[in-house]
Amino acid sequence: MLLRQLEYLVALARERHFARAAAACFVSQPSLSAAIRRLEHELDVPIVRRGRRYEGLTPEGEVVLAWAHRILAEQDALRQELAAMRGGLTGTLRLGVVPTALPAASLLTTPFCDRHPRARVSLESLSSAEITHGLAEFELDAAMTYLDDDSLRHVRRFPLYEERYVLLTPVDGPLAGTSEARWAQAADLPLCLLNSRMRNRRIIDECFAADGATAAPAIESDSVAGLYAHLPGGRWSSVISHAWLHMFGVPEGMRVVPLEGPAHGPRVGLVVVRDEPQSVLAEALVKVAREAGVRDALDALLNSYLGDGS
User: Fold this and answer.
1) Which residues have CB under 8 Å from 106's CB, separation 6+?
2) Residue 114 CB neighbours (<10 A)
3) Which helix (H) or strand (E) holds 34?
4) Residue 59: is it exposed, middle or buried by C-beta count within 10 angstroms (0-12/13-18/19+)?
5) Element (H or E) spanning 305, and its range?
6) Distance between CA atoms of residues 36 and 38, nearest Å
7) Whose CA is closest to 302, among 108, 163, 198, 115?
8) Which residues of 146-179 are buried (b: 16+ CB within 10 A; e: fewer)?
9) What are phi and psi of 201, to 5 degrees?
10) How far, in Å, CA of 256 to CA of 245, rounded?
11) Distance (Å, rounded) from C-alpha 29 to C-alpha 23?
12) Closest listed residue to residue 143, CA positions, set 130, 248, 264, 151
């Protein structure tokens, strides 16, 4: 059995198409098909359900695929460990981040790159479900996500910060002069918010409901950047996580107003797979996360905006 055969199988399962899998592996389709047939012969089990086109894997094939992910991950871990022994980490850290935590990701990735200049970071904005899948299939080394996500299994969790929600509103708006606003008051403003598919929006809706209100935003976005794009101009208000201030700050003509309610929301943290093999790159990121002081940095940033009234 060759590692290359396992790489072809992983590519085929990911692409679900022989030609696309071959292209991803930079080989011809006949070469990829022949390699997988040799793998079936060596293991003496059918791996691929074949028809006129790719129809998925057999039950035996699913077992082989799970082992293929593990074996290839062990190969990567071996290379990383040997590289570290030779004089520093190399390779690419594959980091998945939920969209609402993306603005704070540089608080980890920048010190990681400073400490390990020969390593690289591949950063992907992914949903919680995509992160769970990526970790389980060894397609990700680590992820920044909500730590109370019940779909996460067999992972180690390292808290980074708790979301704090504040109102961004025009400086000439009705709530700009208040020291603290109620959620029900914010619900009456012309709002732009993340859409209901986003975990952050569902949390915010629960906060509105706890104050007897329902938010009816005129504009919804599936990204933090799309939301922020509407804030300059003095028309719209929004409820944001304080972590977004690290990347986007406070648009000109806007003010940050605290909202009544819990001081902290759900925890965002770093997660890595608990099972072996342990990624040397992921362990290096964990060490950075423990020393980065992400929560203190974000809280200090928020307090600076609240303190100067901007």
Assistant:
1) 246, 247
2) 9
3) helix 29-43
4) exposed
5) helix 294-308
6) 5
7) 163
8) bbebeebeebebbebbbbbbbbbbbeebebbeee
9) -65, -40
10) 10
11) 8
12) 130
Query: Cα–Cα distance between 157 and 144 in angstroms, integer?
Result: 10
Contacts of 141 (CB under 8 A, 6+ apart): 93, 94, 95, 272, 279, 281, 282, 285
Query: E strand or H helix at 3, and its extent?
Result: helix 3-15
For 229-266, the pLDDT digits (tens) are 999 888 999 999 999 999 999 999 999 999 987 657 89
Angle formed at CA 137 by CA 131 and CA 143, multiple of 5 degrees: 30
What predicted TM-score, i.e. pTM, was given to this entire model? Answer: 0.73
d(CA 252, CA 232): 6
**Which residues does 303 contact at the CB level (< 8 Å), separation at least 6?**
none
Q: Judge whether 42 and 86 are in contact, CB under 8 Å.
A: no
- The whole-angstrom separation of Cα 40 and Cα 176 is 68
* H/E run at residue 125: strand 119-125
Query: What pLDDT digit, counting tens, does each position of 109-125 carry?
Result: 999 999 999 899 999 99
Cβ-contact 294, 104 below 8 angstroms: yes
Q: CA-CA distance, 132 to 148, in Å (whole number)? A: 13
What are 236's two structure tokens?
Answer: 């719209």
